[in-house]
């Protein structure tokens, strides 16, 4: 099991941001994590990435315990958020080199690794371009390359396509699908329902609770609604139709 979460909670003072959630994610799955603003998605991701200590419950990521082995989790996962940090003054290649260093990619492997990623993500003719001169879609693609430079078996994406144009978003999802076909597990939050539709399973968060977890097709069938958009709105309004 790539991710195992059992009765996990996080409180900030009297606010219960994540309330007793449980689920598992299997290798190679594209797992969509949905919910309205403030429902606890980022807090959950931060706990699973080893960036925030839970208040209660259990979680293991790639077999590592989130309480005792947070550093191992951070070194072995890929993480990309909407606020991806590229070094604007550095070129595409220098950014990738920098992240290879952060993730301790063995020196003798760095060159081939970067060349393979550049080739696959079609960054080859932009290697000497400074990040600041790239468009939004290309910046995001470079950020993905940086997040993959250590070949993580699990990639966390927190609203990775916010502010990216539709064509680039579609290309980005083609890349995610290819990654998943190769066995990389993808854990992704999004507010775009066309993206949610591409996930194998979707989890819905509502005020810290996990209120539904199923495939897009079964979520629609069980609620009797035609679109994920409608399912989302129903869950967001009252948590109705959940399986708890
Ligand atoms: N460090 C913190 N201290 C206090 N409260 C926090 C902290 N981090 C998050 N919260 C609160 O916890 C709740 C859940 O927030 P979280 O960011 O996990 O939601 P989200 O589902 O990711 O929302 P969004 O879609 O806006 O990113 C919110 O009420 C938020 O204000």
- DSSP E strands, number: 10
What overall form do the CA principal axes indicate?
Answer: globular
CATH topology of the largest domain, what is it called?
Answer: Rossmann fold
Largest sheet: 6 strands, mixed
- CATH architecture call of the largest domain: 3-Layer(aba) Sandwich
Oligomeric assembly: single chain
Helical residue percent band = 25-40%
Bound molecules: adenosine-5'-triphosphate
Mean pLDDT: 94
Give the uncertain stretches in residue-range form.
none
Strand order of the largest sheet: 6-7-8-3-9-10
CATH superfamily membership of the largest domain: P-loop containing nucleotide triphosphate hydrolases
Count of helical segments?
9
**Termini gap:** 23 Å
Query: What class do helices, strands and sheet pairing give?
Result: alpha/beta
Give the radius of gyration.
Answer: 18 Å
What is the percentage of strand-forming residues? 15-25%
* Total domain count: 2
- The H/E string reads EEEHEEHEHHHEHEHEEHH
Polypeptide structure, described:
By secondary structure, the chain is an alpha/beta fold. It starts with a strand and ends in a 6-residue tail after the last helix. The protein has nine helices and ten strands. The strands form two sheets. Strands 6-7-8-3-9-10 form a six-stranded mixed β-sheet, with helices on both faces. It has two domains: 1-77 and 156-244, P-loop containing nucleotide triphosphate hydrolases (Rossmann fold, 3-Layer(aba) Sandwich); 80-151, no CATH class. It binds adenosine-5'-triphosphate. This is ABC transporter ATP-binding protein. GO terms for molecular function: ATP binding; ATP hydrolysis activity. It holds the Pfam family ABC_tran.
């Amino acid at each position: 099991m790539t991710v195992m979460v059992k009765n996990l909670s996080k409180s900030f003072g009297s606010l219960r941001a994540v309330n007793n959630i449980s689920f598992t994610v299997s290798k190679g799955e594209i797992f969509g994590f949905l919910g309205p603003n403030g429902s606890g998605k980022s807090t959950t991701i931060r706990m699973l990435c080893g960036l925030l200590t839970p208040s209660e419950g259990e979680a293991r990521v790639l077999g590592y315990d989130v309480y005792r082995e947070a550093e191992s989790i951070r070194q072995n996962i890929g993480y990309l958020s909407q606020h991806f940090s590229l070094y604007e003054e550095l070129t595409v290649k220098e950014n990738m080199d920098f992240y290879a260093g952060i993730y301790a990619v063995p020196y003798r492997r760095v060159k081939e690794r970067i060349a393979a990623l550049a080739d696959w993500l079609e960054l080859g003719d932009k290697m000497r371009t400074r990040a600041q001169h790239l468009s939004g879609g290309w910046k995001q693609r470079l950020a993905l390359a940086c997040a993959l430079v250590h070949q993580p078996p699990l990639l966390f994406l927190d609203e990775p396509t916010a502010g990216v144009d539709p064509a680039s978003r579609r290309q980005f999802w083609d890349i995610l699908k290819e990654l998943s076909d190769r066995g990389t597990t993808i854990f992704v939050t999004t507010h775009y329902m066309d993206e949610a539709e591409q996930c194998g399973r979707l989890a819905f968060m509502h005020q810290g609770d996990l209120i539904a977890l199923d495939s897009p097709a079964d979520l629609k069938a069980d609620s009797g609604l035609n679109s994920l958009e409608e399912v989302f709105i129903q869950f967001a309004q009252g948590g109705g139709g959940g399986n708890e």
